[in-house]
């Protein structure tokens, strides 16, 4: 049985949703080696958060682009995810995390490092990076799911918000890749099969043209500011988690600090939202 092990870069994982079943140790070690090889150039240590088991009746196609890690201080998950996403945008020069925080404060997008508006996140990305942004709204299903998977398979990051903790806070992940379970009858473009895990293939550039109707199961690889480890989200669980973003944390509301919350609250600012980033001149696409 093939087994491998969070917004990956999409927003922080809602960990309570995941079953606590793990892979056999040999497969766990192989999964760590696969990802560490891709991370070695950035000299960033990490491990996968492994869960569940993957059907041996599917072909598994892995897309991923490594990004550096950064541990947040305070409610900075969205800003940290944005900084990590910059590694996949072919920037002419590095943009410091301090610069991102400075611009967010100057524009009134944040007060404590929080970002409760995906629209403001898209505008901030266009201001600090020379990049194009697209704000998805509604639900992360249907056409939006297709756009997210095409975007990730092309090597570009996606920012997705989700509840880190039902009571105290929310988070964002930067999704950097995907693990797709493809129906056995589908003929893969030229890809490299993993030497130790039968049925796992490492995507080549030509593999980004796969038909979505061949995808039986979908997982997203992501990172977030609370851990240096990669996580693997079930797309369905991430979508359901994102849909739970409806209310501002009572604990934060009572802590005496000022937060920037958009008109319509957390539901209007984050629920059903995702931000797609790609290299290029600053351009913001209206919500879809």
From TrEMBL:
Name of encoding gene: ACTMAP
Organism from which the protein derives: Anolis carolinensis (Green anole)
Official protein name in the record: Actin maturation protease
Signal peptide as annotated in the record: none
Keywords, sorted A to Z: Aminopeptidase, Hydrolase, Protease
Transmembrane segments: none
Family: Belongs to the ACTMAP family.
Record GO terms (molecular function): aminopeptidase activity
Catalytic activities: N-terminal N(alpha)-acetyl-L-methionyl-L-glutamyl-[protein] + H2O = N-terminal L-glutamyl-[protein] + N-acetyl-L-methionine; N-terminal N(alpha)-acetyl-L-methionyl-L-aspartyl-[protein] + H2O = N-terminal L-aspartyl-[protein] + N-acetyl-L-methionine; N-terminal N(alpha)-acetyl-L-cysteinyl-L-glutamyl-[protein] + H2O = N-terminal L-glutamyl-[protein] + N-acetyl-L-cysteine; N-terminal N(alpha)-acetyl-L-cysteinyl-L-aspartyl-[protein] + H2O = N-terminal L-aspartyl-[protein] + N-acetyl-L-cysteine
Any one GO biological process: proteolysis
């Amino acid at each position: 049985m093939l087994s491998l092990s969070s917004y990956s870069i999409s927003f922080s994982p809602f960990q309570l949703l995941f079953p606590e079943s793990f892979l056999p140790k040999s497969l766990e070690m192989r999964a760590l080696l696969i990802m560490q090889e891709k991370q070695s150039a950035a000299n960033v240590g990490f491990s996968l958060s492994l869960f569940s088991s993957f059907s041996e009746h599917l072909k598994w196609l892995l897309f991923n682009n490594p990004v550096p890690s950064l541990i947040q201080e305070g409610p900075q998950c969205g800003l940290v995810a944005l900084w990590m996403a910059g590694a996949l945008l072919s920037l002419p020069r590095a943009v410091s995390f301090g610069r991102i925080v400075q611009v967010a404060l100057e524009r009134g997008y944040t007060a404590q490092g929080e970002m409760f508006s995906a629209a403001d996140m898209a505008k901030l990305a266009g201001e600090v990076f020379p990049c194009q942004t697209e704000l998805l709204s509604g639900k992360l299903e249907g056409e939006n799911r297709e756009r997210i998977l095409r975007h990730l398979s092309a090597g570009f990051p996606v920012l997705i918000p989700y509840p880190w903790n039902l009571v105290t806070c929310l988070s964002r992940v930067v999704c950097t890749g995907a693990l797709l379970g493809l129906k056995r009858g589908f003929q893969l473009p030229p890809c490299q099969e993993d030497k130790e895990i039968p049925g796992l293939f490492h995507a080549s550039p030509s593999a980004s043209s796969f038909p979505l109707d061949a995808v039986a199961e979908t997982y997203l690889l992501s990172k977030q500011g609370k851990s240096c480890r990669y996580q693997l989200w079930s797309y369905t669980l991430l979508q359901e988690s994102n849909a739970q973003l409806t209310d501002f944390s009572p604990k934060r509301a009572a802590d005496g600090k000022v937060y920037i919350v958009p008109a319509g609250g957390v539901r209007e600012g984050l629920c059903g939202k995702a931000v797609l980033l790609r290299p290029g001149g600053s351009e913001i696409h209206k919500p879809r």
